[in-house]
Specification:
By secondary structure, the protein is of the alpha/beta class. It has 2 domains: about 210 residues, Periplasmic binding protein-like II (D-Maltodextrin-Binding Protein, domain 2, 3-Layer(aba) Sandwich); about 100 residues, D-Maltodextrin-Binding Protein, domain 2. Helices cover about 40% and strands about 15% of the residues. The chain has a 5-stranded mixed β-sheet. The protein has a 5-stranded mixed β-sheet with strand order 10-9-11-8-12. The chain has a 3-stranded mixed β-sheet with strand order 1-2-4. About 50% of the residues are buried.
Length: about 350
């Protein structure tokens, strides 16, 4: 059950946010990621190391997450003012918790990394191959949450697929061992995890849902709506710093991953650089973002995404894009990444 902070409790929490920093007061801005410290998280650490957050008057601490839904309740309750989460999961959360103070304020994955990843040697190369197969899908996985839309768009009978609700740690190992025929996951995570497990690259099939009829957006920066309304300049400064971190990562992924390695020394630089590059090429630096800049959304596409979600999810309240996303806190300079 969702519990919203009282106004007094939120104000008390906010009052603890400022502390004396070098030369000026800084506002504490804890940031909840969706997942572990891997390649796609590198731009945030690069922004941290380059001082972009400090320049905005922010003291940012980045925490790892446990899946695409993980940051939503953390931000909604005010435990974190900002986070990184799947906007489609946010839609359902807000439908089930109307009035919860959480909203997306900056789109990051313009093209979502939701994917079905299979092995060609196990007979999975395209959507139709999933019929009669065994699919490993972690229940909190953002890609699994959108699988019914993918199935509907591709004429798949869900009853013809055996779904194994696997845990995140065993998802790729089960596919590598042939215990499942395919898995749901983020493309840049599952594919490279399989490579690390010595699955030959030419045996891996990556079926991006966005390439097969799914019009949804992906992960976005989310903010506690109460906090954002009270601290608009801080939220805008945070988003500007994030965009600068991504711009630098686009220009030099290796340096971005160096910033990540400071926080995760056990990570493999080559693997995480490849993972980050996949995220840049497939999810962040899309043709729309190249033209319009990072952070915003296309209204017509968002309406289509909501309608598509409505084909597999029964909304309790009338869904409106403004409930889930606002561009009010985005910097006004377009945030071009190239």
């Amino acid at each position: 059950m969702f519990h919203r902070l009282t106004a007094a409790a939120f104000a008390a929490a906010a009052s603890l946010a400022a502390f004396a920093g070098p030369g000026a007061a800084q506002t504490a801005m804890p940031f909840a990621l969706d997942w572990k410290f891997e390649g796609p998280a590198a731009p945030y650490f690069l922004a941290l190391d380059k001082g972009y957050f400090t320049e905005a008057g922010l003291a940012v601490e980045i925490s790892e997450g446990a899946g695409s839904l993980d940051a939503i309740p953390k931000v909604a309750t005010g435990a974190f003012p900002v986070g990184f989460a799947d906007i489609n999961s946010l839609m359902k959360f807000l439908d089930q918790n109307p009035g919860a103070p959480v909203i997306a304020v900056m789109m990051v994955y313009d093209k979502p990394p939701f994917a079905v990843v299979g092995r060609k040697s196990l007979g999975v190369s395209e959507p139709a191959d999933l019929a009669g197969k065994k699919l490993g899908a972690p229940p909190p996985d953002g890609a699994w949450a959108q699988f019914p839309i993918f199935a509907a768009e591709n004429g798949l009978d869900m009853a013809s697929i055996t779904v194994d609700p696997v845990g995140f740690p065993v998802r790729e190992p089960m596919l590598a061992q042939g215990n499942v025929d395919a898995i749901t996951g983020f493309s840049f995570s599952s594919v490279l995890n399989l490579k690390r497990l010595q699955v030959p690259a030419d045996d891996i099939s990556t079926i991006l849902m966005a390439d097969h009829g799914v019009a949804l957006y992906g992960n976005a920066i989310i903010a506690n709506a109460d906090y954002a309304a009270a601290h608009p300049e801080e939220i805008t400064g945070f988003l500007k710093a994030v965009a600068m971190g991504w711009k630098d990562a686009v220009a030099d992924p290796g340096t971005a991953v160096d910033a990540l390695l400071k926080r995760n020394p056990a990570a493999d630089k080559a693997l995480e650089t490849e993972r980050l590059q996949m995220a840049i090429d497939d999810n962040v630096l899309t043709p729309w973002v190249k033209e319009h800049g990072m952070g915003g959304i296309d209204a017509a596409r968002m309406d289509k995404a909501i309608a598509q979600t409505g084909t597999v999810y029964a909304f309790k309240t009338t869904p409106e894009a403004a409930t889930y996303f606002t561009a009010d806190y985005l910097p006004t300079d377009g945030m071009m990444l190239e």
